[in-house]
Amino acid sequence: MKKSTTGLLIGSALVVGLSGCASSASQSSSQSSASSDGSWYQHPFVCGLAGSVIGGSIGYATSSSSDEESGAATGAVAGAAIGGLLCADRTPEPVAPQCPSYGEVPAGVAVDAEGCPLDSDGDGVPDYRDQCPGTPAGVEVNANGCPLDSDNDGVPDYRDQCPNTPAGVEVNALGCPDSVVLQDVNFEFDSAQLTSNAQNVLNGVAERLVSNPDVRVSIEGHTDSRGSDEYNKNLSQERAQSVANYLVSRGVEANRMRAVGYGEEQPIASNETEEGRFQNRRVELDEWN
C-alpha cells in the first residue's frame, strides 16, 4: 500500500475517533450532573495528542518525498492545536442569582430596576410575602415581615413598654398588665430636675410612644411621707410634669399625655424604712382612656 494511502487511512480513523471524543466532551459539558473533570479521553491534552498524530499523519501523507519530515511536523503542530480546542471545556460559568436572598421569585411579582422583588418598607421581606406591609424603618421583623413580639402579648416589641410580660397575662395598649413604674427615673434631691440616667431611660419610653401614636398615657408622680401633704403633692406634680415635658422634647405629642401628682397618697411600701420610702418615690406610666 502506498505511503499516502496508509497515512490518509490512519488519519481518517483518528479523525473519527477525535470527533467522537470532542462530541462526548461537548455533550458532557451540557449535563449538569457530569463530573467537573470529565472522562480521561475528553481531556484537552489527550485530544491534543490525538490531534498531533492525526495532523502528522495527514501532513506526512500529503507531502512529497523531499519534505515528508517538515510536512509531518507542521501537521502535528496544527493537529495538536485543533484537537486541544475541540475538547476544551465549554461549560458556561455558573451565573450567581441576582437576588439570592429571595429565592425563586414567582412569575408576575413586581420587581425593581435590578430585577429584585419590591420591598416597600425595606424590612428585608419582599412585598409579595410581607404580611405586615408598612413596618417602620429599623424595626426587627420575623419571616413574615411582621414586627417581633417576644412575649406574645399582642403588642410588638417596638411599642411594648413591658416587653417581658408573662404568658397569658392580659395587657393594655402599652403592653403592660397595669401601670408600670418607670424604673431608674429619678430626680435631683428635693427637686423636679431629672438625672442624666433618668433621661436615658425616658429616651426608650419616648421611642416606643412615638411608635404607638394612638395611645394616650397618664404620667403619675408619687413621693414618700416625709414633708407636708401639700408640699409632697406639689413636688409629685412637678416631677410628673417634668417627665411629660421631657417626652415632648423627644417627639411625643403633648395632647397625648397628662401629668398627675398624687404626693404621698398611694404608697406601695412602708414609709418607716429607707427602702420603703425609696420605692414610694416613683413615677408611673399608665394608659389614659
Automatic annotation (TrEMBL):
Its GO CC terms are: cell outer membrane
Q: What start and end residues bound the annotated signal peptide?
A: 1-24
- The UniProt record lists the OmpA-like domain at 174-289
- This protein's major location comes to membrane
Q: Where in the cell is it found?
A: Cell outer membrane
Record flagged with keyword Ribonucleoprotein: no
GO terms in the biological process aspect are:
cell adhesion
Q: Which GO terms describe its molecular function?
A: calcium ion binding
The protein's matches in SUPFAM superfamilies, at most eight in alphabetical order, are given as: OmpA-like (SSF103088), TSP type-3 repeat (SSF103647)
Which PROSITE patterns does the record associate with it? Answer: OMPA_1 (PS01068), OMPA_2 (PS51123), PROKAR_LIPOPROTEIN (PS51257)
Q: Which Pfam families match?
A: OmpA, TSP_3
Q: Which PANTHER family does the entry link to?
A: LIPOPROTEIN YIAD-RELATED, STATOR ELEMENT OF FLAGELLAR MOTOR COMPLEX
Q: What's the protein name? A: OmpA family protein
Question: In the record, what lineage is assigned to the organism producing the protein?
Answer: Bacteria, Pseudomonadati, Pseudomonadota, Gammaproteobacteria, Oceanospirillales
